[in-house]
Amino acid sequence: MHRMRGFHVSTTTDSEGRSGWLGAGRAARSAHRRAVTRQAASVLLGYPDETFFERLPLVARAVAELPRGTVRAALLGFCEHASSTPELELCRHYTEVFDTRRRHALRMTYYTDGRGPALTDVRRVYTDAGWRVPVRELPDHLAVLLEFAARGDSDAGDDLLLRFRPGLELLGEVLWEHGTPYAQVVDAVSLTLPSQSGQDGEPDRRMAVQGLLGEKGGPEGNGESAVRPAAEVSEGRIPAPRESQQERRQDLDWGGR
What we know:
The chain has 257 residues and is an all-alpha fold. The chain has a single domain (26-250), classed as TorD-like. The chain has eleven helices and no strands. It has helices at 26-44, 50-64, 70-84, 87-98, 117-128, 142-151, 154-163, 165-178, 182-190, 202-215, 245-250. Helix 1 packs parallel to helix 3 (70-84), helix 2 (50-64) packs antiparallel against helix 3 and helix 3 packs antiparallel against helix 9 (182-190). The chain is globular.
């Protein structure tokens, strides 16, 4: 289980020292929005312990400052859900979703080679960037990857997220099928990545990921237990959307361009 070390969002500043949206160029504003989104998602995908609930209001305030659009609405919707759900109930839901279902793994190397060479590569990227991951944290956990992309090396973080994109988008789909609000957070992360042309081999990679999930076993816990049928949508959970990931991406509006 990933437990966040902190939540920090820097402000953008132009050459004349003006801070905020008006003082930044388009590229800086876009980078800032990605960083805020990823850092917020990193916190929201962590285990909902006491520290999580202490940081939740700060996350909600940071997200509220994003331009109106799909990403802002998704993250604010989850913040509202988390703040209105009893703590023990949210803890149980997190454990039920991520710690007992292999198809819902938050460890991104699970979707590649089962924490073999890919995990070594992730550690190497962190080391090269001078980014230290506490011993208790899992380097390939999505929340850790997002924190690195937001607060560490953004370019290297982008490369890692793009590498794990097939697994990330498959995770989002199965979370929607499961009917959990965490699907909104994963969708927001996917929408920070560049659009795809549809002709870059992604369908083949996604088929490989799905085959891997259907064939490979793994240790229980941390979202890697044996595959179980997705639970039906029940009271208090959001329904699975009818539109595809690409259709949701087309609705994205960062604003403030």
